[in-house]
Specification:
Blueprint lengths: L7 H11 L8 E4 L9 H16 L3 E6 L9 H13 L8 E3 L4 H13 L3 E4 L3 H8 L16 H13 L8 E4 L14 E5 L13 E3 L1 H11 L4 E5 L6 H8 L11 E5 L2 E3 L6 H9 L14 H7 L3 H11 L6 E3 L1 H13 L4 E2 L1 E2 L2 E6 L8 E6 L9 E6 L2 E5 L19 E4 L4 E9 L5 E9 L17 E2 L2 E2 L4 E8 L16 H6 L6 E8 L11 E4 L3 E5 L8 E7 L8
Parallel strand pairs: 1-2, 2-3, 8-9, 10-11, 12-25, 14-20, 18-21, 23-27
Antiparallel strand pairs: 4-5, 5-6, 6-7, 13-24, 14-17, 15-16, 17-22, 18-19, 19-20, 23-24, 25-26, 26-27
The chain binds adenosine-5'-triphosphate (ATP) and magnesium ion (2 copies).
């Protein structure tokens, strides 16, 4: 989707404008259930709904679909609002709760009873399932299906008044038990639930089902285009059925349009499973930087710009597919490439001593903040006799094509000198504790006779004297294998088997002094290492950074 070609939803919308179906009105909604945190799949729906409203001069409602009081909380409501705002979208005064419509929904259900289109049923859940039939055989009508309107009105009112226990009775739509579409075989539209609701308290003990509450709420809000995911395609006849008796002032009833839900490799896209990870302590919380939640992705260091770009690039499709996570990673690299300062941090440090460099000398060097964006200016770095480089940049017995430091080999230290490894110092266990080098005094970058002398490798480094201690958290994917999460319906145990036990590695790192001037949420490129963000766990004397993503795709496909 590149802005010049239209997707199928835009085609529908433009046809509707042409045929004057909704006049000049264009209203979408984003309808989360506040039973968990939003994830990247929801971001797709948010960008789509708010994006279309912007494109067509319409508006988008934020509506909390809060019809299941056992799973919903105010904490989730608040976090969802925060996430939508953070993504860059505003709903202004268009904040709604399905629970605000409970009276209206009840009255409308009464209207359906009066029209002979709904009835109170006493079948148990199991019986109802049995009566519903299968794809290949029609369902059977409930013996309670032909109750009189008067009896249904009385029973429904008694349900509301709390006369019956949970599950004792339900209100069903009276449609067609022989319909080839099972969703049309008299679906339940109200159930009894003696449970306190986070907004309506104990006022109600009957709650509308999603398939009824959703279309009617859309109609109440005068939504024009109700965009949902593909699983609801088979529910569309029910959506239309539910609102056919709704009195819209202009006779303009909403239409449902389905698109393929977003799946991303290595990412879990179900609130239910994400909740299991949180509850089992497999992650530190909903905002763990490995989580595909908006809160987790934000803490990981992703920007709203990168997520919106990702949602644009994947476009909307009518068939389910899985997007490779490398596209998301590409989007954050693209966003930060020119914006983020590039500093030097040695993630896994080993000491380097330049034995021929004076002990009491410190040079101040100038480094560019972003080699591709001069506007970010320059900074100072100090250089002296004792430095750190990364352990992975040294091999005592180098393999072929190892162009970094090794005994007898030369490398350039970025912005500084060419050094040559002369010796290594080991501890009693044989671990390298110091690398001893000499330097070419004529090789200082930007000056000196050998400033442009070519050597095979250039390494990043920091000066031991003023380096800042930093805890670096390097993340791997939470889900093993390149496969997306398994099909819905498999047990949670299967899904837990796919969890990567090594998804977090923590290093005690050394960063150049400049890092101390930044705050939580600031983004960087660490030279040769990738993109990083300062984590909220940082304190004035203990800095923590998260690796957002490496510099390029290093994952085996
Ligand atoms: P989950 O299965 O994770 O609980 P949900 O669909 O039940 O997700 P809701 O809070 O009901 O969660 O979703 C709010 C909106 O976000 C719905 O319109 C839904 O279609 C959309 N949405 C949810 N997941 C995705 C996804 N993976 N891709 C695109 N849209 C999604
Ligand atoms: Mg849902
Ligand atoms: Mg769900």
């Amino acid at each position: 989707e590149n802005g010049t070609t239209k997707n199928f939803i835009e085609n529908f919308i433009e046809e509707d404008f042409k045929s004057n179906r909704y006049g000049q009105r264009f209203v979408t909604r984003f309808p989360p259930e506040p039973n968990g945190y939003l994830h990247i799949g929801h971001a797709k729906s948010i960008c789509l709904n708010f994006g279309l409203a912007k494109k067509y001069g319409g508006v988008t409602n934020l509506r909390f679909d809060d019809t299941n009081p056992t799973k919903e909380t105010v904490e989730y409501v608040d976090n969802i609002m925060n996430d939508v705002k953070w993504l860059g979208f505003t709903w202004e005064d268009r904040l709604h709760f399905t629970s605000d419509y409970f009276d209206t929904l009840y009255d409308y259900a009464v209207k359906l009873i009066k029209l002979g289109k709904a009835y109170v049923d006493d079948l148990t859940k199991e019986e109802m399932k049995e009566y519903r039939g299968t794809f290949s055989e029609p369902g059977k009508e409930s013996p309670y299906r032909n109750r009189s309107v008067e009896e249904n009105l009385r029973l429904f009112e008694e349900m509301k008044a709390g006369k019956y226990a949970d599950g004792e009775k339900v209100l069903r739509a009276k449609i067609d038990m022989a319909s080839p579409n099972i969703n049309m075989r008299d679906p339940v539209i109200y159930r009894i639930f003696h449970h306190e609701h986070h907004r309506t308290g104990n006022k109600w003990c009957i709650y509308p089902m999603y398939d009824f509450a959703h279309p009617v709420s859309d109609a109440i809000e005068r939504v024009t285009h109700s965009i949902c995911t593909l699983e609801y395609e088979d529910h569309r006849p029910l959506y239309d059925w539910c609102i056919q008796d709704w009195d819209d002032p202009e006779g303009q009833l909403p239409r449902q349009i389905e698109f393929a839900r977003l799946n991303v490799t290595h990412m879990i896209m179900s609130k239910r499973k994400l909740r299991i990870l949180v509850e089992k302590g497999i992650v530190s919380g909903w905002d763990d930087p490995r989580m595909p939640t908006i809160a987790g992705i934000r803490r990981r260091g992703y920007t709203p710009e990168a997520i919106r770009d990702f949602c644009d690039r994947i476009g909307v499709a009518k068939a389910d597919s899985t997007v490779d996570i490398s596209l998301l990673e590409y989007c954050i690299r693209e966003d930060l490439k020119l914006k983020a300062p590039r500093l030097m941090t040695v993630i896994d440090p080993v000491k380097v001593v330049i034995t021929d460099y004076p002990e009491d000398k410190t040079e101040v060097l100038t480094a560019e903040n972003n080699q591709e964006n001069e506007a970010l200016g320059t900074r100072h770095m100090t250089f002296s006799r004792t430095l750190y480089i990364d352990r992975k940049d040294f091999m005592e017995e180098p393999v072929k094509k190892f162009f970094r430091l090794a005994p007898g080999k030369e490398v350039r230290l970025k912005y500084a000198y060419i050094i040559k490894c002369e010796d290594v110092v080991k501890d009693a266990d044989g671990n390298i504790v110091e690398i001893h080098c000499t330097h070419d005094p004529e090789s200082l970058s930007g000056s000196g006779a050998n400033a442009n002398r070519k050597v095979n490798g250039t390494l990043h480094w920091v000066n031991a004297a003023d380096a800042v201690d930093v805890e670096t958290r390097v993340y791997d994917y939470l889900l093993n294998g390149a496969d997306e999460e398994e099909e819905e319906g498999t047990t949670s145990k299967d899904f837990l088997d796919q969890i990567n036990p090594d998804s977090l590695t923590v290093y005690q790192s050394k960063a150049e002094a400049a890092l101390a001037g930044y705050k939580a949420g600031d983004h960087f490129q660490f030279l040769r290492e990738g993109y990083f963000v300062i984590d909220q766990d940082s304190t004035p004397d203990h800095m923590v950074v998260n690796r957002i993503v490496g510099l390029r795709d290093t994952w085996a496909k």
